[in-house]
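Why this split exists: single-chain examples teach little about how molecules sit against one another. For that reason, every record in the complexes split bundles all components of an assembly together and asks for one structure covering all of them. Below is a record exactly as it appears in the raw files.
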Amino acid sequence: MVRIEFLGPIQKPAVEMEASTLAEVAEALRADETLKAWLKNSAVAVNDTLVSGLDVALKDGDKVSLLPPVCGG
Amino acid sequence: MVRIEFLGPIQKPAVEMEASTLAEVAEALRADETLKAWLKNSAVAVNDTLVSGLDVALKDGDKVSLLPPVCGG
Amino acid sequence: MLELYDGALDVPELLKKWYEEESRGNYGAYIPFVGTVRDENGIEGLSFDIYEPILTSWFDAWQQKAAGRGALLKMAHSRGDVLLHQSSYIAAVFSPKRRVALEMIEAFVEDFKASAPIWKYDLKNGERIYAADRSTAIGGSGLLAGGDA
Amino acid sequence: MLELYDGALDVPELLKKWYEEESRGNYGAYIPFVGTVRDENGIEGLSFDIYEPILTSWFDAWQQKAAGRGALLKMAHSRGDVLLHQSSYIAAVFSPKRRVALEMIEAFVEDFKASAPIWKYDLKNGERIYAADRSTAIGGSGLLAGGDA
């Protein structure tokens, strides 16, 4: 199982799913209409490291985080 | 009489002289060999305002200041 | 070097603490940047969420970059609510040289604004409203949206 | 806004005082630049001469320039001796906007280095030696030397 966390203003509880690549996670999340806008403007981290492609292999216990637009300061 | 002040590291007591323009002050100071290097690298203020030409008219009581290279901070 | 606090920062105390911590470091320049909540748009204050694991790695990468130029960074940020005229953010650079310090505080603060995983909310009429219009998508955002991103 | 002190500056106290003075000014950014005496070249400290009338008019011109962008400047400098690891200079900008503050602290500090009528001396073996090699001739220097300048 892979755990998906939605950070900051996305305000959605974490979900767990079976997935062996980030592409599979993307496909599953695209089915959720409430996430549509967030998927477009969020960055993605796997185990707290930002990633830039969907071909990331995932294994049991991995964490995928969605980071929506930021504004510290 | 015009008063000439030598600031910071020039370490020379102020002098007073008769002069009706800054050009006359320049001529008088050039006669002082100990000032030769300072004249080349110093800026000049008349009554505490920096000036950029020698054709400045001077009157009794005016103050001319020589400002050698600076390094605050 | 990265300090997170619940609520507003004690700015004089942090600026003093950092100055004293580095007083024997032979740094010629110390430049703090202090961010304070402005009274604008009818807000009562701001509120912040922080995702600490990625903030820490982002900060550590900057600290290494600073070390390569002989400099040192410190940063403090608030979690939760910060009211009008209180401060939520301090970034500071210590450097032997003035030029390095001036360049680094600017680059650090700008990258912080663009990349640090912190989310800002307006406190307005008792609500906590995501400051979407002032927020910046982190580089590479949209990855999961696919072709229609 | 321009404060001159005999000997080293009390940095934490000045940073605190200025922060508190402007706490209701609705400035979103406060950036102090602190200059500290480094242990280098075998010096025991630095010493400063200041020509106050021209420093004041230089500072007032900058204050006006800052006001045109909604910002405010403060500055403190030491007169006389400042020992190793003590601080001799603080410049600070308060501004509603981050960008204005970052740009202004840099421009102000650089112009200060190039133009402010302050002379620096190394304290070495009990002597006070003009730091000629680190000093900058003010723009327009050489006027009195005539054609052979």
